Amino acid sequence: MSRTIEEKREIVAELKELLSQSQLALVIDYQGLSVAEITDLRRRMRSTGTVCKKTKNTLMRIAVDGDSKWQPMTEFLKGSSVFLLVQEDMKGAIKTYEEFQKATKKTELRGGVFDGQALTLADVKALTELPTKEELMARLAGGIKAIPTKLAVGLNAVPTKLAVGIKEVPGSLVRAIKAVSEKEQDSQAA
User: Fold this and answer.
1) CA distances to 101, 144, 156 from 21, in Å
2) Beta bridge partner(s), residue 53
3) CA–CA separation, 46 vs 186, rounded Å?
4) Which of 43, 27, 147, 160 is nearest to 81 (CA)?
5) Is the CB of residue 54 less than 8 Å from the CB of residue 11?
6) Residue 68: burial class (beta carbons within 10 Å; 0-12, 13-18, 19+)
7) Residue 15's pLDDT band (boundaries 50, 70, 90)?
8) Is the dihedral of CA 151, 155, 160, 166 positive or negative?
9) Are 15 and 63 in contact (CB under 8 A)?
10) Which of the listed residues 48, 105, 158, 174 has the most CB atoms within 10 Å of its CB?
11) Which of 97, 87, 85, 91 is nearest to 130 (CA)?
């Protein structure tokens, strides 16, 4: 049974909404997956903040039409497509999909789109090597925390070195006077 035009418009509107909330879209060929396997994929992806959406390529093409951020996806729209719309954890979503793919050996990643750029398989794989948002925030916090520590160590060193220098002045003065008096005594003796 074919869908009505109104139903198709609702699907396109839903796709546009999902895309507006996503940071990465992956397009996979799901040929040969059973209903249970697609359900398993959806369940696995949900934990990474990813929506697994099965829809016709034509409806996705309409949803991305005119949207420069998602327009490159059109090059992957062929055959049987499932779209993984990643809203939260890109790294986790890619790794979760890879684990699913290894278990079923029935899907193939065609590519993805991130920030208006089409991604090849190698590009998608490279995203898993990037630090997560939490890791970047921890690094930044560590760097910010180190600044006051280094400043405090530097400020504490100034009075210490000043005190050592002041303490050394009388000793240096005594040595200088002694050297001058010895020189005067040597010149008087000669």
Assistant:
1) 25, 31, 50
2) 83
3) 94
4) 27
5) no
6) exposed
7) very high
8) positive
9) yes
10) 48
11) 91
Q: How far is CA 68 from CA 80, 123, 126, in A?
A: 24, 19, 23
Closest CA to 52 of 2, 6, 114, 107: 107
Instruction: State the alpha helices, DSSP H only, in the chain.
Output: 5-20, 35-46, 57-64, 90-104, 121-127, 133-189
Assess contact for 84 and 28: CB atoms under 8 A.
Answer: yes
Residue 76 to residue 57: CA distance in whole angstroms: 9
As given in the structure block, the two tokens for residue 188 are: 């008087």
| pLDDT per position as a tens digit, 133-163 | 677 778 777 777 777 777 666 667 667 766 6
